[in-house]
Amino acid sequence: MAVVKDNYGPDETAIGKLKHLVIDGLPAATWPVTLAEDAALTDDVVAGTVLGKITASGKYAPYDDTADDGTEDAVCILAQDANVSTGDRYVTAYMMGEFREGALTGIDANGKADLLANKIFVRG
């Protein structure tokens, strides 16, 4: 299956949310990742969604602490909105930085601990 690459980088609609997501101070580092297709996700995966890495494919998907496919470990934060209902998407994710907890989607105590181990600081 081909990966859609037309959504690379934070788009203009996500910029406003990103300003509320990142805390000034620690530089935020980004990296391109492949967000895995999921036909069950009919709405966009929004910027600020905490992501885990699927062990079998190496692709990323929304963090799920109850999963056992690799996504139970939070590893990064999505930097742009993306629709994965019809295919994989090549997107940008934050791999380091300091972020506002209230702006994150899917975060919990275990996810915060996982992110901290990856040099991603979540503040209340």
Please tag this protein with its features.
Virus Head Decoration Protein, Chain: A, alpha+beta, 124 residues, 6 strands, disordered N terminus, 2 helices
Helical stretch tally: 2
What would the average pLDDT be, to the nearest integer? 86
CATH level 1 class label: Mainly Beta
In whole angstroms, the N-to-C terminal distance is 40 Å
General description of the model:
The structure is a single chain. Residues 1-8 and 11-16 have low confidence and may be disordered. It contains two helices and six strands; from the N terminus they run αβββββαβ. It has helices at 12-21, 109-117, and strands spanning 29-35, 50-53, 60-62, 74-78, 89-100, 120-123. Helix 2 links the parallel strand 5 (89-100) and strand 6. The longest helix is centred in the N-terminal third of the chain and has 10 residues, at 12-21. It is globular. Helix content is 15%, strand content 28%. The chain starts with 11 loop residues before the first helix and ends with a strand. Strands 1, 2, 3, 4, 5 and 6 form a six-stranded mixed sheet that branches. It has one domain: Head decoration protein D (Virus Head Decoration Protein, Chain: A, Beta Barrel), CATH 2.40.300. The chain is an alpha+beta fold.
